[in-house]
Amino acid sequence: MSVLSKVFPQLNYFHLDNIDIDGNTMSISGTAKKASARCPLCGRRSRSVHSWYARTISDLPVARNVVVLHLRVRRFFCHVLQCPVPPHSIVVMRRRP
């Protein structure tokens, strides 16, 4: 386990693409590892990727450095007909902590 994953355990769910330190700002870029996720409404697992989107998260300073996370995550389709979401709608599935 790296020092970075001890400081940011949530990053274990991401492939780290780049770490850049510019002055007092640490920028960490990553891409989601999971190939599937559960629908937050019906609970069924989906592997059907609709699209990718970027999230930028600022965290508390670490050793006086501003930390900014740039994450590329997936959106999935939910294909369950009985799901409260209409078929083939976009459902953002998030990993529960």
Structural features, described:
The structure is a single chain. By secondary structure, this protein is mainly beta. It has one domain (3-91). The protein contains one helix and seven strands; from the N terminus they run αβββββββ. It has one helix at residues 3-7; strands at residues 14-22, 25-32, 37-38, 45-46, 49-62, 65-78, 89-91. The strands form two sheets. Strands 1, 2, 5, 6 and 7 form a five-stranded mixed sheet that branches. Strands 3-4 form a two-stranded antiparallel sheet. Strand 1 (14-22) and strand 2 (25-32) form a beta hairpin. It starts with a helix and ends in a 6-residue tail after the last strand. The model has no long low-confidence stretch (mean pLDDT 78).
